[in-house]
Design brief:
Radius of gyration: 33 Å
Pfam family, one: API5
Protein name: Apoptosis inhibitor 5
Family: Belongs to the API5 family.
Structural class: mainly alpha
Number of helices: 22
Keywords: Apoptosis
Organism: Sphagnum troendelagicum
Order of helices and strands: HHHHHHHHHHHHHHHHHHHHHH
């Protein structure tokens, strides 16, 4: 019986042999441009058998740079191979993509764009190949590659965007020192890319980008004030301070509170809090009692911590609103109702800081007799009733705080006894929580007494930013050794006992919730579900992607 062979298999084998010949001739040729027909044959093999495709996926990139006139055909053939059904062919084609732009940098944007899309790959081997190929392209031309990737972050398919965000966070950001060279140019470039991509982000995404920007040399501790102001302006943009404020827009309020807390460290470094304060004064304080209680407290704490960095003009504008709010929470006569001591502490401290910036403004607000020699002293006018009203309210809050102190001190003894009697871990944890709550309230009351005492004078000395004062929610700090050469106005001291004799904000760490913790808590607690109207939490864009709320 005659020995017969499958014609199709024979043809496929011949095609593979031809490919090897093309490759050998190109490798041996001194002037490869004369072997254009061989390269055309390699490109055509991308539509051949499985073995031919796998070999073509290796040969197309290898000789790509020698045939610029065939670049479009070659790239398209290689990309077709990246979409093959067979995993081995796809992986081989993906591995070859970086070679298509190694000596032809003009192709980096296209290859970077394609690799970004290929991050959607489901097979682990394929995903690994894409990731390695992308890193190779990034090292070849970081600027063009990042630009291509960030275009997807800015306005791509939701699934692709999410994959690229993960890649950027896990693979690019940790290698910033290696990839972002020359440093000044590349840090500016990626900053601009990030700023463009923030038009529609979730709270967690925004925090990720801000944390990265703060890690750049461009914005480090030695950065000039205008760079820190740039960071603050990014936060202000996300807070959407030009939008019409609506008290029922819960998402905007959540976003605003998160941005307020993010902004605090920038005030310390010299950025202006003017835009945020003016927005708060105009839109939030007039409807303060309509906010949820946790948002009221968050807003007051933010005002308290940012008040030392307020300009005199902004202090002058804000003082009447703060005083009005203080009077709302401190009655002129005892009513028997329990006072909100944390609110009062916040408002009294903020009052001190603002009044320190513009002392004679308090003459017409509280009836003081502070002399600066300016017409705004208004010493010829009679504000006696205002002084009486204010000091009577101070007396009410002082009497209440003293009574609460006595009660809490007595309660501490009972908590100590309860702790000794507690047998289970749960019981001990419960007593510990009660003791901690009582301790914070004690500190709050002592702070109120410290803040209220000097305000009874006709010309009080207001607590300014150069004095040390430990706010109740920032108590229990371990003393920080003073630096060898303390900067002016920022000398740190050990926390005052029970708040007495202390007078300026102690920033940052501690048992209470610091600004970073507030941001993290706000971001962690916000839903990722779609709110009415869609978009990524309503942050900016509104492309109805359901990217979650703040």
């Amino acid at each position: 019986m005659a020995n017969s062979k499958d014609p199709a298999a024979t043809a496929a084998g011949d095609a593979v042999e031809k490919l090897y010949e093309y490759g050998e001739r190109l490798s041996e040729s001194g002037d490869k441009s004369k072997n254009e027909a061989d390269y055309i044959g390699i490109i055509a093999a991308a539509k051949g058998s499985s073995k031919a495709k796998q070999l073509a996926a290796q040969l197309i990139p290898r000789f790509f740079k020698y045939f610029p006139s065939l670049s479009a055909q070659a790239i398209n053939a290689q990309l077709d191979l990246c979409e093959e059904d067979e995993l081995g062919i796809r992986v081989q084609a993906i591995r070859g993509l970086p070679l298509l732009c190694k000596d032809t940098p003009e192709h980096v944007p296209k290859i970077g764009d394609v690799l970004g899309q290929l991050l959607l790959a489901e097979e682990g081997l394929e995903r690994d190949a894409v990731s390695k190929a992308l890193m190779s392209v990034l090292r070849q031309d970081t600027k063009a590659s990042l630009t291509a990737l960030f275009k997807h972050i800015e306005n791509s398919d939701e699934n692709i965007r999410e994959k690229i965000l993960v890649f950027v966070r896990e693979r690019v950001f940790p290698l910033k020192r290696e990839l972002l060279q020359p440093e000044a140019e590349m840090e500016r470039h990626i900053t601009d890319l990030i700023k463009k991509s923030l038009q529609d982000v979730t709270g967690a995404e925004f925090k990720m980008f801000m944390d990265f920007l703060k890690s750049l040399t461009l914005f480090n501790d030695k950065a000039p004030p205008e760079r820190i102001q740039e960071l603050l302006e990014i936060v202000e943009g996300q807070a959407d301070l030009d939008a019409v404020f609506t008290i029922t827009d819960v998402d905007h309020i959540d976003r605003l509170m998160s941005c307020l807390n993010m902004a605090l460290p920038f005030y310390v470094r010299g950025a202006s809090n003017s835009k945020f304060l003016n927005y708060i004064n105009k839109h939030l304080l007039p409807v303060f009692d309509k906010l949820k209680e946790d948002k009221e407290l968050e807003l007051l704490k933010n005002l308290t911590e940012s008040s030392p960095y307020t300009s005199a003009q902004d202090a002058r504008n804000l003082l009447p609103s703060i005083l009005q709010l203080l009077k709302k929470y401190v009655p002129r006569r005892k009513t028997g109702e329990e006072l909100n001591y944390t609110f009062v502490e916040c408002l009294l401290f903020t009052f001190h800081q603002l009044a320190h910036k513009t002392p004679n403004t308090t003459n017409s607000l509280c009836g003081y007799k502070i002399v600066t020699g300016q017409p705004s002293d208004r010493l010829g006018e009679d504000f006696k009733e205002l002084f009486i009203d204010f000091t009577e309210r101070l007396t009410v809050v002082e009497d209440s705080a003293k009574a609460t102190n006595r009660k809490l001190t007595q309660g501490m003894s009972e908590h100590n006894k309860a702790m000794s009697a507690a047998k289970t871990d749960a019981a001990k944890a419960d007593v510990k929580a009660k003791k901690q709550s009582a301790s914070i309230e004690l500190r709050t009351c002592n702070n109120i007494l410290t803040l209220a005492q000097p305000l009874h004078q006709k010309a009080p000395s207001f607590f300014g930013e150069k004095k040390i004062f430990t706010l109740s929610w920032k108590e229990n700090l371990k003393p920080v050794p003073a630096p060898a050469v303390p900067s002016t106005g920022n000398k740190r001291a050990a926390p005052a006992v029970n708040g007495s004799g202390a007078t300026a904000v102690k920033r940052a760490r501690g048992n209470g919730v610091g600004s970073t913790q507030l941001v993290n808590r706000a971001l962690a607690g916000l839903s990722r579900g779609t709110r009415p109207g869609g978009s990524r939490g309503g942050w900016r864009g509104g492309r109805s992607r359901g990217r979650g709320t703040w």
